Amino acid sequence: MFKQLQDKKKTLAVVGLGYVGLPVALAFARKFRVLGFDINENRVALMQAGQDPSQELSPEAFEGTDIRFTANPEDLKQAHFFIVAVPTDVDAHKVPDLTPLKKSSASVGRALKRGDYVVYESTVYPGCTEEDCLPILEAESGLHGVKDFKIGYSPERISPGDKTRSVTDILKIVAGCDEEALENIARVYEQIIKPGVYKASTIKVAEAAKVIENTQRDLNISLVNELAIIFDRMDIDTKEVLAAAGTKWNFLPYSPGLVGGHCIGVDPYYLLHKSKQMGYDPEVILSGRRVNDGMPAFVAKRLVQMLTQKGKNLSKSKVLVLGITFKENVADIRNSKVVEVVRELMDYSIHVHVHDPHASPNEVAHEYKLTLQDEISSGYDAVIVAVAHREFEGFDHAYYTKIMKDNPILLDIKGIYDKKLMNGTLTYWRL
Questions:
Q1: What is the pLDDT of residues 276-295, one digit of tens each?
Q2: Which fold, 2-201?
Q3: Beta strand segments in 115-155, E
């Protein structure tokens, strides 16, 4: 398989061209002949014109690549090595939603031929590839896994907004259904991953490794979030506490904040789901999730308390929220916890403006039914700096007092400002 891909006698297909799939497809397209497939025709049209719909990659990233983009599932029959990189989310009840994964497995299954490979990159719970996806591949193709075609798993490792570590700069875990599959999958990925690959012993081990990476981060952030809640009641600055504790060599540098996005705020629920299926109710993981899921309400209620203390009429108050993406300097609005802060404030009848220079107004309106302000106005009773976009870093005390009324309040969720420079006529608070 590897030799035929290398000689471009066979085609590699990437299914799902979002934040993960597109960078992976373009990286492989510098080595192999690639077919990029996505069900969203509008996104495909942009990529055909050399544009990244997610605004992560420059037009130069498309240059010098052997790739064809398509939204026609029939075109998948031209490929022999499939990489599935579709999103895996949770539903309103925090239960894993495998719909995109199952639908893409069905599309790939209908295109499968003897000797083909299917590698999943989507984050899932241990066992999902073999227990949920493989039966679909077999049913749609009429072939038998391992015997007629090979499957594998290589969890995505990409950090949106990180310009120093692209997908090719991060060591990659690979796993296969047998030794032959493992070796071939490893050879394919080694062509684009500069640090090389780590060969996991089984697919389940690779799946588990991925899901605990973000579970561990979730728990660490939940600890400092809980500390921030405690220290706020004690009138102690959490950032100063963390700076002092960080002088010890083995103290881990985590900061409090809103935990959203498509990984940290989602992946632990996949492990929780599988664990409960196995008859065990995790306590630590679930506790961490409760703390982090409760942070938007904590921030909103804290502001409401401050507005009330200032004698403000909530129904006549106007608040500006700066940033709605899940992370600084990216356009990704998936699972944004800032949205929950906004809705909490609206529940108090507060008039809320939201401004974000990175987010798409159309996507925000479609996904959350919220309107972004093109320009920042004035007359605000409070401002919440919810996302640490570079555009906000230069805003100073004078700027905020200019756009706010008397007794102004500034909430700095990420702690991007110097507290000493913000104190004065402003009431400054940070998480």
A1: 999 999 999 999 999 999 99
A2: Rossmann fold (3.40.50)
A3: 117-120, 150-153
